[in-house]
């Protein structure tokens, strides 16, 4: 194990003025507190905090962060309390350790109310000091490096959580090296066959073509010398997961993938960056649409660099990143550069971002009034997406996530402008509101008095700020109608179990569900945010697991006239538990659609055909077919394993169709008969956890919105 002297020596290489007495005391305290504890591998537990401290020392972090790493599990896993740590090491370190403890205790993969509420509190609380997050990232990195000692199911859970939460967070904070390592370590657990396949292809490619990296690097150095530019040039093959992701996004095999190599040119000045760009483009052909200038438009985490992709030897495309030494230091450490030391002094890097400013740019767009799931959605949208920069007609720059639309642009300016938006012009041309904005475009928002947000905007907007404002407006507009509908739904739900929905009963249910008042409870019930069964079982929990008779398929949907025939829309395949609406067809009855079905846009101008529907409360039969789009490894026994997993969830496969076959992977559509949304979630979760399933999603096809052959969508 690394000793206290080893750690202090490492810290002193970049900070000779570090408080070695403090570090030694923290080491001794942590070792004493964790005495007798062991990791799954059999090593003393304290080897883990020491390794975390070592990772942060390699990032040249300050003494407080190193000490926090040594103590980060003491409050949670030992007899030490917050008061003990504060008394011995001071308030600052105690609060940092407590912040890491709270973050460790969160179930970040869950969107349940309790976890979401904790995430909200923690996010706001730790926004004052991002060193908590830096310690947690280093903690997760070491756990992933040593994950093989865990049980296979625990490995899969931790790897999925790392891929979904911690790797994107590291990338967003500018720590790209850590993001890549976390992704690769997770990929090794979640899809070892895929990773090994890519590594084998690399070996074969290198055997066939020789060391491409060395050849291209030598060529670039020759060009730099010709132009009298002093530069460090380095190249590397991209990580297996990065290549795998490109294969999935482009739906291409390894042999057809082009930019699998990356090169970096580091120079002295900003002017040299643009000179290098000119030299590169004169020597090699630039690939259109693959140029990004993050020097003139830096990322919010301080990242600055020029990216370009060119065609190198044998027509292979390679990515080149060009930056100065200062820019490179920020690119390596991201937001952490704010705390970095060198030669005993705090690093003065003019490109390093103030963490307080960085975190406030995220939190200012997160609404205190959002419900829990909306808050989680907003956090993920704001934190895990790259940005584009667009201009107002006056020339002001608006930063938005990649994929943002004119609606997001309008709300970024002001909520009032967003709500009144009726159209937009991009670079002077009128465009639909769902247009995806690109870097450098000029956007003009067109507003109209009396305009209010439309329900379809929820699916068009991508920023948390826009989605929250739209939902709030829709809730306020529909609140009275939802309260009336909710009261009726509550009456029916209580009568189904022989009870009455009195005002006292509803007040008790609202309190049990932590909802602010009866009207809010009824509004959520009417808007299908909660179910009548959930309201009833909040008061009568003994009914939670009571299984009554299955509902007859003929009365599965409530809201139809006695003589009306209904059928589920093949386009969206709604299941009990999801919000639904009916569209009438003369002579054919009613087609039931999910409320977010894309096909409903065709009936927006025919409100007389819409029917407000909801599912009957109770147990539904497993007769609702849902189609899954799955990509699985092409290996012996995999398909059988998938079928077994579905069967273990008491679900039946009614059809299976291959739509794409590749040497390593198959893509197929699987029809599964399900009871309700909960049953659907269980099946999908079981498949997502299977290492041989690279992707699984629900398949929806608006083109199937017809009732039957030859039947038009619209009524003439």
TrEMBL record:
GO terms for cellular component: plasma membrane. Its EC number is 2.7.6.5. The keyword Ribosomal protein does not apply. Residues 45-144 form the HD domain. The keyword Chaperone does not apply. It comes from the Bacteria. CDD domains: ACT_RelA-SpoT, HDc, NT_Rel-Spo_like, TGS_RSH. InterPro entries: ACT-like_dom_sf (IPR045865), ACT_dom (IPR002912), Beta-grasp_dom_sf (IPR012675), HD/PDEase_dom (IPR003607), HD_domain (IPR006674), NT_sf (IPR043519), RelA/Spo_fam (IPR004811), RelA/SpoT_AH_RIS (IPR045600). Residues 382-447 form the TGS domain. NCBIfam families: spoT_relA (TIGR00691). In eubacteria ppGpp (guanosine 3'-diphosphate 5'-diphosphate) is a mediator of the stringent response that coordinates a variety of cellular activities in response to changes in nutritional abundance. This is GTP pyrophosphokinase rsh. It comes from Yoonia rosea.
